[in-house]
Amino acid sequence: MNSIRAENLMVIRLDEGEEAISSLKDIARDEQLRSAVILSFVGALKYSKLIVRKGVEKEICLHAEAVGNGNISLLNGEPFIHLHVALGNDDGSWVGHLLKGTVDIFCEVVLQIMPLEVRRVYDVDLAEKGVTVPFRLDLG
C-alpha cells in the first residue's frame, strides 16, 4: 500500500494480496480521518465478499474487475468503510456492499477528506429488518 496526500485529497494504491477494507481502515486511522468520500475505487479483486441485497451475501473467488465509491465515517471512534462496488468477470457481474476484498494486481482509491466528523450508530430497526450492516449515519 502506498499513498499521497495534498490537503484534503488523497490517492491510495492497494497492492496485490492486501485486503481492501482493512487497508482503508488502517489509512483512515493513520491519517486520523474523521470522514471522507471515496470518490473512486478502481482495480481488480481476486476474492470478494459482498452484501448483494438485504441479508444476502455473495462470495466471488475469481479475479473480478472492480469499480466503486462510498464513504468513511466513525463507528464508536473507529473508521467505518462504506464501500459499494460493481464487480465483473467472464462468469457475470455483481453489485453490492463490499465486506472483504483481496486485491489482485492493484486497486486505486481517491478520497476527498471532509472537514467534519461523520458518525455511525447501531440501528435496532435496521437489525430487526435483517440488514446485515445495521449502522446508519448519525447526523444530529
Q: What do you see in this structure?
A:
The chain is mainly beta. It contains 2 helices and 9 strands. The chain has helices spanning 20-30, 124-128; strands at residues 2-6, 9-15, 36-53, 56-60, 64-75, 78-89, 92-113, 119-122, 135-138. Strands 1, 2, 3, 4, 5, 6, 7, 8 and 9 form a 9-stranded mixed sheet that branches. Strand 3 (36-53) and strand 4 form a beta hairpin. The N and C termini lie far apart (35 Å).
Q: What's the quick description here?
A:
The chain is mostly beta strands and 140 residues long. The protein has 2 helices and 9 strands; from the N terminus they run E-E-H-E-E-E-E-E-E-H-E.
Structural class: mainly beta
CATH architecture: 2-Layer Sandwich
Task: State which percent range the strand residues make up.
Answer: over 45%
The ordered H/E elements are EEHEEEEEEHE
Helix fraction by DSSP (H/I, runs of at least 4) = 10-25%
Average residue pLDDT: 97
Low-confidence spans: pLDDT under 50, at least 5 residues? none
User: What is the CA-CA span between the terminal residues?
Assistant: 35 Å
The biggest sheet amounts to: 9 strands, mixed
Name given to the CATH homologous superfamily:
Hypothetical protein, similar to alpha- acetolactate decarboxylase, domain 2
- CA-atom Rg in angstroms: 15 Å
How many helices in DSSP terms? Answer: 2
Overall, the morphology is: flat
Q: Could you tell me the CATH topology label.
A: 60s Ribosomal Protein L30, Chain: A
Can you count the beta strands? 9
Structural domains: how many: 1
CATH class value = Alpha Beta
